[in-house]
Amino acid sequence: MSGRHWTLRTRLTVSTTALLAVVCAVIALITALAMRSFLRQSLDDRLDAVADRSAGTVTRTVGKSAELSYLSAFGVPGGTVGVAVDGGSVTTAEMVSATGEAEQPTAAQQAVLAAVRADGGHYTVRLPGLGVYRVKAVRAGSADGAVVTTGVPLAAVDSIVTRLVVVELVVAAGGLALAGLASAVVVGRNLRPLRQISATALRISGRPLHSGEVSALERVPASDADANTEVGRVAAALNRLLGHVEGALEARHASEQRMRRFLADASHELRTPLAAITGYAQLTRRGTEVVGPQTALALAQVEAGAARLSSLVDDLLLLARLDDNRPLERGEVDLSPLVAEAVRDVHTAAPDHHWRLEVPNEPVLVTGDQARLHQVVANLLANARTHTPAGTTVTAAVRPQEDGILVQVTDDGPGISPELLSRVFERFARGDASRSRAAGGTGLGLAVVSSVVAAHNGRVEAASEPGRTVFTLRLPWGAPSPERIAEAVESY
Ligand SMILES: Nc1ncnc2c1ncn2[C@@H]1O[C@H](COP(=O)(O)OP(=O)(O)OP(=O)(O)O)[C@@H](O)[C@H]1O
Ligand SMILES: [Mg+2]
């Protein structure tokens, strides 16, 4: 398992425990080595003591065959062996058994012991059948006198050291398990504020902050924002940052509100003079007073301009109302006749396009504002009319689906450029062609579509390529009205 994806808690716990394990291993190693060297030293001291006694024996028996009576003295440890070598051959050999009895070492063992150099040094040899021994050979008196070699077993030292190592390993393993557990708990507790920070940040990042009014942002609890700890300082910094963000969002919301109010007020103020301009122009043109053809044309243009301005003002007012979340009319709307009527209207206005209608026979009901939904479909059809050449086939369809109703307007016109398509529902977004065209729109049509559909809990999507442009509205099914339920019950 790679440690890259471990949590901080796991990483800290594992690294602390690993560090502890290394320290334990070093301590165990040093203790074992020190113990081994100490025990060897004391074994050597014991060997010296026994061997020195042998020297006395040999001195006393010089000239005769050396005897090994020192081996039976009190305190000589079991397993001790001794050989006396005189004139190159072993004269006597003896071993103290574990129970204190005198035994005879084998010839092979005697040979190993006889070969030890008689310089008073300590050597380690392996005696066949007996194991590893520390040995020392002592020469009596003169340079060619008898040599007595004494050996004590190392096995005891080794077994003590082995036992020590086993005990150390068991204690260390238990200690490490406990330390690992304790460190997981302690690290977990210390990282709690960090978890709080990430949970808070996660919750805030899940909130829609890009628009609208943002109510108070959640903070990391003060208990986890202790400025005396590193993690606490991060929490405190995050809380401060959230304070600033909150202030900035409030300022943005206030400025949006001001802008909306200004737009709504300005649109409202424009409405009355526009109505007056339209009214007076119509009155003068159609009145009894005779006007010249030029004046009549000018008046018609004034009327057309005023009408376009009125529709712009109406769109702006509608958008302002929708931005303000002001409720729309809510009624039961059958989409099939609504779309059919809109197609009929546009057909009259643009007979050079081919208009096709695909609606089911049964009612397709949504809950909403009939006039606004009609405006939505009319806007899409108007776009298919104004932004495509004559002869284009436009299909308006209502397609009931399990999870909602699709209303689609498809045309086989030139399409929308990808650059414009990505922002086509933004306010005042329109193609260059529309901008330069004398009768070009304002670029609010699709923004109104998007806002009205959103107010009906629906979605709108646009897909376009040369030869095929599709606008799709997805609207939720409407709850049937009480009257309709009553009707259905009656006809049952
Ligand atoms: N069916 C379509 N085919 C080609 N281009 C389209 C189509 N529908 C929309 N567009 C492009 O998208 C732009 C934005 O459309 P939108 O309806 O928002 O504004 P508009 O039609 O220019 O003005 P308005 O609808 O406010 O009178 C248009 O200017 C046009 O360039
Ligand atoms: Mg339009």
Automatic annotation (TrEMBL):
The chain crosses the membrane at residues 12-35. Its main location: membrane. Its cofactor is a divalent metal cation. Residues 188-250 form the HAMP domain. Residues 265-479 form the Histidine kinase domain. SMART domains: HAMP, HATPase_c, HisKA. It comes from the Bacteria. It catalyses: ATP + protein L-histidine = ADP + protein N-phospho-L-histidine. It is found in: Cell membrane. Its EC number is 2.7.13.3. Signal peptide: none annotated. One of its GO terms (cellular component) is plasma membrane. PANTHER family: SENSOR HISTIDINE KINASE TRCS, SENSOR HISTIDINE KINASE YKOH. This is histidine kinase. It comes from Actinacidiphila oryziradicis.
